[in-house]
Amino acid sequence: xxxxxxxxxxxxxFGINFDPAKNVFEIKGNSFPPNALEFYEPxxxxxxxxxxxxxxxxxxxxxxxxxxxxxxxxxxxxxLELFNEHNEKTQNVKLKWYSSDDDDELFEDWKSLIxxxxxxxxxxxxx
Length: 127
Hints:
- This protein is α/β, with parallel strands linked by helices.
- The protein has one domain: 2-Layer Sandwich (Transcription Regulator spoIIAA), CATH 3.30.750.
- The protein contains three helices and six strands, in the order βββαβαβαβ.
- Strands 1-2-3-4-5-6 form a six-stranded mixed sheet, with helices on one face.
- The chain is globular, with a radius of gyration of 14 Å.
């Protein structure tokens, strides 16, 4: 089995906790790295490797995101696209977006990011 991928958050990069044993993938914090490719390429490779296995159990992706820049959004989309391709075959992927009610701009950005994907999602309000 693939090992967990844990990356501590920094001021400009997300905290990552990808747990293949539980099929839970958590992304939280902010993302505006100086080199988005350098930060995201290992994540994309990890997800590709994970999804190349026989993943039958439900997959949950949790976003607890405060901010991400445009270059980050391109890589977030690539990761979600991989999960979307998997979901087309299995129908077992779900997104949960955690955000405060008053952050309409971030929510609208996120909705436009996933509009071309067919992933079920749930918005969870943080009080």
